[in-house]
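User: Teach me something about this protein's shape.
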Amino acid sequence: MDRLDEVAGIGRHAAQVLIAEVGLDMGQFPTPRHLVSWARLSPRTIQSGARHRSGATGKGNPYLKAALGEAATAAAKTDTFLGERYRRLLRRIGKLKALVAVARSILVIVWHLLADPPPASMTWAPTTPTASTRAARPAAWCTNSRRSATGSPLSPPPDQTTSG
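Assistant: First, the predicted structure itself:
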């Protein structure tokens, strides 16, 4: 619940509703598209010949859609990726369709957070490699297996022997 609470627009109550309605086991949804389709937030296209038009998303779970709608409305007011997405879509497709698109994006983020649980001893502080781990790491940025003669910020300086 704490990981879901960090997403823009999702508060403690919305996280509780999402977990209650979707569950913690994402094994039943192999991809985020399966979850979005199950929640009836997938965009539909109705085609007849050369004519295309968008269709309704469907009814789905009313509690889940209500929580995602509130989260999308809150996320639209923030200065995050979801807020920028809402404002970008608002100019083209209108307010309600943009909110549904942001709700779909939130549901995809929720799937990724629940499908990949954190390790038990997860630290949020960034780790910087020490000099010993940098020297032991292979030179993946080179095209061959030899280390670069010019060096890089990640590699230790080459041994310099003076002759003379």
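Now, about its shape. The mean pLDDT is 76. Residues 91 and 98 are 9 Å apart (CA to CA). If you'd like, I can walk through any region in more detail.
User: That's plenty for now, thanks!
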